[in-house]
Amino acid sequence: MAAPHWYMRAESGAAHQGTQKAATCGLHAVNHARRPLGTLHTWAEFDGRSKPEERTPSGDWELGALLRNVEAAGAVLRPVYPDALTSLSRWNPEQATLTLWAQDTLGYVMSVSGHWVALSRPDVPQTVDAAALLCDSMHKKPYALGVEDVRQLFTLIAAHQRNAPLHAAGQWSVHVVERAYP
């Protein structure tokens, strides 16, 4: 699969040769998850909305910065709890889609051990073998995930959240980005 036109857009000011510049994975995850809105945050805009205490020692943003930037785009960000992850990875044969793609769902932002990535809806009709796109700003193109891939990913994240000490449970997490309605 080639990189789609919306992936790692240079006008964000945070991409170089198709991958992220510096610690900007949070910016790219938010942009990829909310891409159906048709707008793009730049690095300067994203950083300007972030508070200094929302930076990790590595320079990346904490969840609060992502939340504020999702809201600035007219969307909402909410956590998906471990018990819900299993139901989101079911294939709906009548609608030919994963159950995670509800009507108001734009995408998902995930923390994977200190790195932000996104799940985005495919541009083409979904199949059992290509039901979501994993957008990782460390790579030049998104990766198609099948239903079983999504199920395994969500199962691992849920297991980590259930078994990790409280201070480490959020290192692996899933957050849904949805349309905000007045």
Write the layout of secondary structure elements.
Layout: E1 15-16, E2 19-20, H1 25-33, H2 43-49, H3 63-72, E3 75-80, H4 82-88, E4 91-92, E5 97-98, E6 105-112, E7 116-120, E8 132-135, E9 143-145, H5 147-163, E10 172-179
Antiparallel strand pairs: 1-2, 3-10, 4-5, 6-7, 6-10, 7-8, 8-9
Describe this structure in words.
This protein is of the alpha+beta class. It is built from five helices and ten strands. The strands form three sheets. Strands 3-10-6-7-8-9 form a six-stranded antiparallel sheet, sandwiched between helices. A two-stranded antiparallel ribbon has the order 1-2. A two-stranded antiparallel sheet has the order 4-5. Helix 4 (82-88) runs antiparallel to helix 5. The protein starts with 14 loop residues before the first strand and ends with a strand. 36% of the residues are buried. The model has no long low-confidence stretch (mean pLDDT 91).
